[in-house]
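HUMAN: Forgive my ignorance: could you write out one protein's sequence and backbone structure tokens?

ASSISTANT:
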Amino acid sequence: MGKAALQWTDEMLAQLGREKDAVLAERWGTSAKTVNLKRNALGIPAFGHFQWTPEAIALLGTRPDAALAQQLGISKASVVAKRTELGIAAATGAPTTFDWTAEAVALLGTASDAKVAAQLGLSRLTVYNARVARGIPAATRGATSTADTAAP
């Protein structure tokens, strides 16, 4: 015999999209697929999914993709993908190189290239190239950035 259908309460519906589907599913004793289907049926974006508002869309192409990504708290790839999808040209006259300040250079090798890239609003490859060009070794596994370990 199949499992009884989940009875959705207003409280459960209010939590959709505020946590990962799998977390909610475990809490409610159901499958992540059930939670996913209900969330999608209600048009609720997945947890962590960036909602492109008209204001955010209006910013596309007005400044460098990396700078806009950092401002919006998303990846540069997300900005490029949305700008390309909408046929919006990249910002003209935008700087093509990152200003490697002493503070930015100090982050190289303190955490994975991907983590440092996210902090600086750059691609992982840009951080990798900058680190290698300066002869800075990669962070060892489990290393945390100085920002993560700094005293309060």
Q: What stands out?
A: Residues 3 and 29 are 11 Å apart (CA to CA).
